[in-house]
Amino acid sequence: MNRLKNILDTIPDQQLASYLQSAAKAALAGGKIVKDLFDQPHSITMKGEIDLVTEADPASEAAILKILSAAFPDIPNMAEESAKSKEMPEQPTWVIDPLDGTTNYAHGFPVFGVSIALMQKETSLVGVVYCPMADELFCAAKGVGAWLNGEPIHTTSTSELIESLVATGFPYEIHTHLDRVMEQLRKVLPAVRDVRRAGAAAVDLAYTACGRLDGFWEMDLKPWDTAAGRLLVEEAGGITSDFNGQAYSPFKAEIIAANPAIHQKLRSLIA
């Protein structure tokens, strides 16, 4: 946890620092399980036609919940594999994706992460995304900043779409959204330098926050996909919104996240 020292020292609110420390500890524990199981044969079950779960998803979730429950027994959780509701919580709640990018994971494609946020209604107070294969720990705290392995991160300053590298994702219910997805690609692809589709929204948002991407958009998302990553982007100087330009909340199904110079330009293409 040495990489957290620089971060925790800059957070004047000790309660907020404690939340972030526990979220990071839990993400690292979940990530270790995910990484240890990566090269093993996977047990796969299906939640939908192409929406799958491996043995690593619940194992990571159990480890995360054990740590968070021990540290803050009165704070409830909304975790992907056990959540009974996706409604906006009234009280502070942990919003957890124990393995974002499960399809990648099941196929041996090493782009995935663990995502943990503490939310109060629509506001993310802390956010952590851990990418175990690269050992990259992204952290953010509301009003304080965003970091990668203890070093401050910022979104890019790219101002022209044609110079921008952006990312997107495809919904599991692709048959329902196919026409809209293809129309967005037809508009965006020729207007930017290139488009990436890595298959893990939390990682895409973390990469936008640290400047590896200039922007990202996706639809049909769940709260645990973006609750941590949206805070990373915002605390790194970026902007998040829905496709109509309204204020973003993880309880909305669509997001655009980008540096301030291209956010509106990207939104105008997608909307």
- Strand arrangement, major sheet: 3-4-5-6-7-8-9
**DSSP strand tally:** 14
- Give the N-to-C terminal Cα separation: 42 Å
User: What is the CATH first-level class name of the largest domain?
Assistant: Alpha Beta
What would CATH call the architecture of the largest domain? 2-Layer Sandwich
What percent of residues adopt helix (DSSP H or I)?
25-40%
Q: Name the CATH superfamily classification of the largest domain.
A: Fructose-1,6-Bisphosphatase, subunit A, domain 1
Task: Describe this entry's structure for a reader.
This protein is α+β, with helices and mostly antiparallel strands and 271 residues long. It folds into two domains: 2-152, Fructose-1,6-Bisphosphatase, subunit A, domain 1 (Fructose-1,6-Bisphosphatase, Chain A, domain 1); 161-270, D-Maltodextrin-Binding Protein, domain 2. Helices cover 35% and strands 23% of the residues. Strand 8 (145-148) and strand 9 (151-152) form a beta hairpin. The mean pLDDT is 95.
In short:
The chain has helices spanning 5-9, 14-37, 56-71, 102-106, 174-188, 201-209, 223-235, 263-270; strands at 45-46, 52-53, 77-79, 93-100, 113-120, 123-131, 136-141, 145-148, 151-152, 165-168, 194-196, 215-218, 239-241, 255-258.
